[in-house]
Structures are given as C-alpha cells and as structure tokens.
Amino acid sequence: MPTTLSDRAARTGALTGALAGLLVALPAFVEIFTGETAATGFFLALSPAFSLPLLAALHRRQSAVTGHFGETAYVVNLIGIGLFGGAAFASNLVLFYFDDAAVERALTGPTVPALIGSAAVFAVGCALFGAAMLRARVYPRLPSWAYATVFPLFAFLTALPDSALTSALHIVVGATLTCLASALWRSTRTAMPRAGTLAGHAGRN
Asked: Which of 160, 162, 161, 172 has its CA nearest to residue 35?
C-alpha cells in the first residue's frame, strides 16, 4: 500500500530541495566568471545530500498513482544520488586540493570504473524517476521533463573540463530542483488522488 505524506514532511522536503537547488545554481553562476574555486566546490559538494529529503517527499506525494514502476524508479534514483553525491563530494572537497600528478595517481585501479558506474546508476535513476513523474502528472511537466532528460546528461558531462556548458547544466539542474520543491510546497494544499480513484477515472474515459 502506498505511504502517505504529511504536510510537514512535504514542506521539509521542499525546503531542503530548494536549498539543494540554490547550492547547485548559485555556485555555478559564480563559476562562469571566476572558474572553479574552493568556495564554490564546497557548496556544490553539499547539494546532493540536501536533495535526498526532496526525492523522498516527491516520491511519497505521488506514490499512490505510480505503483511498482514508481517504487523501482525511486529506489534506483536514491541509490544513484548516494553514489553520485559521494563522487561529487570527493571531487570537490578532496581531489580539488591535489595537484594533477596526485589526481592521476588517485584515479587508478577500480576508481575510474566505480565513478563511471556511479554516474550510470544516477543517470538511469533520474531517467526512470523523471518518467514516473511524467506518468503521474502530479508535478509540472517542464521540470519533470528536465529531470528525465537533463539530469542523465548532467551525470556524464560534468566530468568535462569547466566551461560555460557545464555551468549552464548546473544552473538548469539547480532551477529544476527549485521548481520541483516549489511544486511540492504548493501540493500541501491539494489532496492527492488514490490509485483506485485514478483507475476508475481512466476506465470512464
């Protein structure tokens, strides 16, 4: 049976999600002019952790209408954020302070395949969860499409050298998280349909 989401939990997820979005978008905007810095990397490294309550709240708010597919998408996306967030933390707060030779020595053995695998799981999870949001039609279409398409690209393109493209991707990701957080906050005033109600409505059409 789908779990319910209290308004307090939804608002908490919305607040942390908005913070996650700002922690991605604002440092990326600054980096357009300054390049990567220790300060911007610090905030970018923290963002994935604050996105987790948002993901949980988004899923629980729509779980009554997404069924088993939504559950699978949520679990894969949750694992992907955990893996990708760990990679982002290491890149921005550890490898950033190493010289190039030290970074090359660190990226040996299973490290690179593990990083690629983390990005792959994150990309698949985002594509699946974005598809679940599009099917549920609980949240706005534009950020749902962005979650399903831009986030998977973001997983791999952020490995490229810093450029206007990577900064723009960060800004789009941050804006998407903020839009979903805003929609989640507004949804606390709206009763969500039950699975049986949705099925009955579909059957009458």
From this structure: 162
Residue 25 pLDDT > 90, yes or no?
yes
Q: How far apart are CA 23 and CA 10, in angstroms?
A: 20
Residue 201, pLDDT score: 42
If we measure between CA atoms, which residue out of 178, 134, 192, 187 comes closest to residue 9?
Answer: 187
Domain ranges of the chain: 7-204
CA distance 95 to 27: 18
Give dist(CA 129, CA 124) in Å, integer.
9
pLDDT digits 0-9 by tens, 92-116: 898 888 888 887 887 888 888 989 9
Q: Cβ(107)–Cβ(169) under 8 Å?
A: no
d(CA 26, CA 35): 13
CA distance 36 to 203: 54
Cβ(159)–Cβ(107) under 8 Å? Answer: no
